[in-house]
Design goal:
Strand 8 (278-283) and strand 9 (288-295) form a beta hairpin. A 6-stranded mixed β-sheet has the order 2-4-1-5-6-7, with helices on both faces. A 3-stranded mixed β-sheet has the order 3-9-8, with helices on both faces. Strands 11-10-12 form a 3-stranded antiparallel β-sheet. It has helices at 13-24, 45-54, 84-90, 117-147, 150-171, 183-192, 214-224, 237-244, 248-258, 264-275, 300-307, 309-313, 323-329, 332-338, and strands at 2-6, 37-41, 58-60, 63-68, 95-102, 200-206, 230-235, 278-283, 288-295, 315-322, 342-344, 354-360. It is an alpha/beta fold. Bound molecules: guanosine-5'-diphosphate and magnesium ion. Guanosine-5'-diphosphate (GDP) binds at residues 7, 9-15, 103, 105, 108, 205, 236-238.
């Protein structure tokens, strides 16, 4: 799973990227690290608590890949200003984070001359839409040709129906991420890497002087930015940058002073994870406490395959207890006594936060 950070120059993308890679970098992935791509840990308080209880040798968070993508220039309303180099980097991502600048700095002028969150949001949305429209048009040409050939006719006719519908949606100014789609259609759209279909997290980089007003600002923005696979989250790049330099103890004091409950970066990463339709289940023990990433709706057998293909192939049963029930009971023994521990077959659909032990052959 990979998330691309996009937005206008000087909006705070690289600052955001650097702070998350400093504070949430996965120790296992240090070797992989290069300037623009990093494997980032998905923070999870539940895993922290399980780790405290089991005191294992290792704690392994779920991870997600984040890419810092430069290269959108000033919005040009007449035609697409996404160049091919930019598109090549954006297309493979499963979701996008659009960083929008809302901080003031005279020494660093906004490329459009002033801050305007909704204008920047809409300009970028238009670009995504234009890019997808261009794709649909050229795809339709190609499909028309395929329809004339016996070998490709059947598949092309089926696909054409989809592409015509996407084209209409886009012509109406609607993003593909807002529409209902069958599984087959979603798969096709992912293969084509259409941009307006990707889940979008709008990350507003607020000015630190707006900290007291941040709820109010975000509330009004949210009234204008709505949709199925879109979310708006504020953050303060400058404050996060300062936080990243501090020890844990200093961090706590600093956050209290600003009235912050949680690092915004943790919140943003979790929001992106959720937006991607992902969730976690846990495995626990003396060796390791670990959060595993699965898609919502996956069953016990599919989920066990995320750990190891052998577990998938030789799956017998899963012993499952939900995190909250486990915490309420305090131990596995107590869970068994209270009957909250349950034995499940391969069809069992996992819940976010299930603790699972797999029995296999
Ligand atoms: N004052 C202020 N400066 C910021 C903030 N976020 C980023 N900057 C500065 O703005 C400049 C551009 O940020 P950068 O993250 O490189 O933007 P990018 O072009 O989107 O990657 C850098 O000098 C940052 O230190 C912020 O919230 N407040
Ligand atoms: Mg940058």
């Amino acid at each position: 799973m990979q998330i691309g950070i996009v937005g206008l120059p000087f909006s705070g993308k690289t600052t955001f990227f650097q702070t998350i890679t400093q504070t949430h970098l996965d120790a296992h992935s240090l070797q992989k690290k290069d300037a623009n791509i990093a494997v980032v840990k998905v923070p999870d308080k539940r895993l922290d608590i399980l780790t405290e209880m089991f005191n294992p040798k290792r704690k392994v968070n779920a991870t997600i890949e984040v890419v810092d993508i430069a290269g959108v220039q000033k919005g040009d309303h007449s035609s697409s200003s996404f160049n091919s180099q930019f598109l090549t980097k954006v297309r493979p991502n499963d979701a996008l984070i659009h960083v929008i600048r809302s901080f003031e700095d005279e020494s660093l002028p906004h490329p459009e001359g002033s801050n305007d969150i909704l204008r920047d949001f809409r300009t970028f949305e238009e670009e995504l839409l234009f890019s997808d429209l261009a794709f649909c048009e050229s795809r339709l040409d190609k499909l028309e040709k395929d329809i004339t050939k016996q070998k490709t006719k059947e598949q092309a006719l089926k696909e054409k129906e989809y592409v015509i519908r996407w084209n209409e949606t886009l012509q109406n100014g609607q993003m593909l991420r807002d529409t209902d789609m069958s599984d087959e259609e979603q798969k096709l759209i992912r293969n084509y890497q259409l941009l307006s279909a990707k889940p979008l997290l709008v990350a507003i980089n607020l000015d630190e002087k707006d900290i007291a007003r941040s709820d109010e600002i975000v509330k009004s923005i949210k009234q204008n930015i709505k949709g199925k696979n879109i979310r708006v989250e504020p953050f303060f790049a400058k404050i996060e940058m300062e936080l990243a330099e501090l020890s844990d103890e200093e961090k706590e004091m600093f956050m209290e002073e600003y009235g912050l409950k949680e690092s915004a970066l943790s919140r943003l990463i979790r929001a992106a994870y959720d937006l991607l339709g992902l969730q976690s289940f846990f495995t626990v023990g003396e060796d390791e406490c670990r959060a595993w990433t699965i898609h919502k709706g996956m069953n016990a057998q599919e989920s066990s395959g995320v750990i190891h293909t052998d577990f998938y192939n030789k799956f017998i049963r899963a012993e499952v207890v939900h995190y909250q029930s486990f915490i309420d009971c305090g131990s596995f023994a107590k869970c068994k006594e209270k009957g909250v521990f349950h034995l499940e077959g391969k069809e069992y659909i996992l819940h976010d936060g299930d603790i699972m032990h797999i029995r296999h052959g």
